[in-house]
Amino acid sequence: MKNTFKDYPLLESKKKSVPLFYPHIPKRAKKVVSKVLSGRWVGQGPLVDKFEKVFSKKFCDNLPVVAVGAGTDALHLSYILAGLKKDDEVICPVFTCTATNIPLLYIGAKIKFADIDPNNFNISIEHVEKLITKKTKAVIFVNYGGLICNLEKLNFLAKKHKLLLIQDAAQSLGAKYNNKSISRYADFTIFSFQAIKHITSGDGGVLCIKNKSLFKKALRIRWFGIDRPKKQGGTWENDIKEIGYKYQLTDIGASLLLESIKEFNKIKSHRNLICKTYLKKIDKNNNIKFLTNTNKKIKPVMWLFTILTPFKDLLQKKLRQKRIETNQVHFRNDKYSIFKKFVKKNKFPNMDKIQNNYLVLPVHTKMSVTDAKYISKTINKILK
Ligand SMILES: *Cc1c(COP(=O)(O)O)cnc(C)c1O
Fold this sequence. Notes:
With 384 residues, the protein is an alpha/beta fold.
């Protein structure tokens, strides 16, 4: 694999530091945003429509997509479209960005957390199977850091028990399964364009819907419950029958995303190359283990590079002294007070084992392969 961005090591720059995250701003960002600013549409206008078409073709095998203001909006919208109501039982990951689970609290759904698979920190499918009851309505899963779940097994379970599948793909944009878009393997798939995701509009998101008949409803719920094209066309019946939100993307955001999509293939190879460099250089260190994709059917686009070590605190501290930023990024959700009432009896042995041992290393397009090599060397020196 070739290094696609120019190799300017951050560690040799003025600041001599490597941040954990850095937003990817496309080359022509200022130009395209400034064009939007001098036009009529700065909110949701024609560029959002164009973005939806381009995004669907590039990432969702032409399934219907709805652009929204954040990944969290997309998740909430998917829960509404899935028909989840107060006290409905849903199975969701105990380890994820809180954005996955918090919108379930908006609805009042009954959360059943599933433990992690220790190999990739994704949802444990064995545990999911144990948690399924007659009352279970949906399984929500995350592809952690770009590592993809076993989508075939999840689909098999969903079919067998008549469950809806909701995929949080905020960290796995562009990933393929059996050479198909991962969005084909769930009823709903969401993506995020928050500042540090693969591509960004500052904040933004997409909901991809497999069932085409829900598409129009999704558009209405995005905009107060109003049929906006009809309203703009003067043919709206002038009534609101369902509660909607204000969850739209703006043309300013869409202009940035359309430019970023043009650079996506480069972003993808750069991120994967940084991760490969870490893998190669730290591989022989006996104090460190990695999370990996072993399923040959998966083509991932890495977002996080996570290592496991019993010396997490020491390593993080020493790396900080060398101006290399690392962090755990996400924490088990069952420990947060807002979720306490759902975790009385549940046990998460896999999560317990690793909760103090994982650490995420920098991966972004501002850093270079030289930085990744230097970070690896530094890690190997600290944990000899
Ligand atoms: C970033 C992220 C989200 C939320 O996206 P926002 O755009 O910040 O609302 C949801 N789930 C996961 C797993 C994420 O990493």
